[in-house]
Amino acid sequence: FFFVFVAMPSYDRAITVFSPDGHLFQVEYAMEAVKKGATAVAVRGVESVVLAIERKAASKLQDTRTVKKICKLDDNIFLAFAGLTADARVLVNKARIEAQSYRLNYEDPINVDYLTRYIAHTQQRYTQSGGMRPFGVSTLIGGFDTDGVPKLYHTDPTGVFSAWKANATGRNSNTVREYLEKHYEENMTKEKTTKLALRSLLEVVESGSKNVEVLIITKESAEFLEEGELSKYVSEIEKEKEDEDQKRKAKPAAV
User: Fold this and answer.
1) pLDDT at 9
2) Would you say residue 10 has pLDDT above 70?
3) Which residues of 72-81 are buried (b: 16+ CB within 10 A; e: fewer)?
């Protein structure tokens, strides 16, 4: 018997090798990992940045405090992510060390743009060297600089970063982004910003305050919405949806 071995292209195994049509498959696979992650939403208002994430159902025996999708990077900067939680933990730890090093060297808090560039640079570096694999994480970074202006950025596994008024990442992010594009308004108050972030997330998440987590960042503080406040927002949103449905049904009857 004679065996013929055919050398198969290994473009999807080697991270540093481009395919003939210009793809880095390992990086694209990392993007697919992000699309399978829990949905994360961020909205920037005139006086706040709101981060909202889908919270997966936990086991009765699990301590939910150990499962976090919104992380503090510095006093004035927070990050929400979609994708592999373990990868996010490594990336967050690197960002926290950079933030503390900056504070130690310059005696000032790190600014949002600088830290976003550092995170994006770290993600890009892991797409260019052998013996590594890309971070399977996409991030939404929000916070305030010393000028008091809210900032919001997005990074993805390729290392690309960009500033946004509102954005979503993770599973069903396209649906959420379309909703945000239709309903985003300039100069929104903290109340409107929070409601928009929560309502856009509830477009793809099963209704109920137990399935979401919301962080409101202002110049002075950053606070997670308590269960009671979340339930109040969810009730208001559901009532608004019902009113809109009734108006939509009433229009053909009027004609």
Assistant:
1) 57
2) no
3) bbbebbbbbb
